[in-house]
Amino acid sequence: MQKTFCVLLGVVMLSVGVMAQDVVTAEEEENGWKPSLELTADYSSAYVSKGAVGNPDPILALELNLELKGFYVDVWSPFDMSSYNSPERSGSYTNNRRGRAEEIDYVIGYAYTIEADKLGGFSDLTVDFSWQYYQYPRYREEGDKRELSHFKEMPLCLGVSLDNVLASFTEADSPHSLALSNNLYYDLEQYYWYTESGISYGYQITEQVAFSLTNTWYWGDHKFNGWGKSAMKATDLVAKVDYEICDHVTLGAYVGVAWATNSHERQEWKDDANNNRTNWWGGVKCSFAF
What we know:
By secondary structure, this protein is mainly beta. It has two domains: about 1-35; about 35-290, Beta Barrel (Porin). Helix content is about 15%, strand content about 50%. It has two helices and 15 strands. The longest helix has about 30 residues, at about 1-30. It is globular and about 55 Å long.
């Protein structure tokens, strides 16, 4: 009788274990097909791209990202908050852009992460392929007096990044982290390329507060700056503090500084009213993720 009871108990426990495993598998599969949505609002003291200032006045940049199983779509746009991009002031647009988008970037891509254990336990490797379309509403090309509905570029973007190259300096649960990244962009229409290579240090101050310091180097061929000119070379350094308000909301503050790293680029910055030998900017960013 006792032997029969033990056998029945074993069968019941095995059945429960199998059912629990099926439930976990079903939940994991369901969560795997659940899309993620992130909305970011970034209020910056200036519009800075690749270290150079395009708009020296405050902007509000909005970004919407939707991801499912590695496939994603992204829309990013900075809004002019000061009427800097008016025909009388900047001359770059055919109408006043105050409260309107200066630029709209559309991105479609796929990112695949190879786990560290498949790479010898050193680091996760994320490979990201994307296609981007840039739109500049009512933008006026230099020397062109026509009112354009948009000015466009169509680069095919290949991004390769190494995440958590050194997950910690001491032990697995260390608050320190170090990450490397590299992105290559190629313009299909104008046949130029440029790269962004960065190194980022992170420190988890508390469970909710994190600090990061990121240095990014930008390098483009001579066609990026115009035929017959030196290649684009610049670098910036951005310090940021993030506070996780709750599971879905993060608030951050940052400050950045940028330099041109060759003589040609430095002279162009010096001659441009928006840029200095050293460009400074800062802002606050809020992200909502679901």
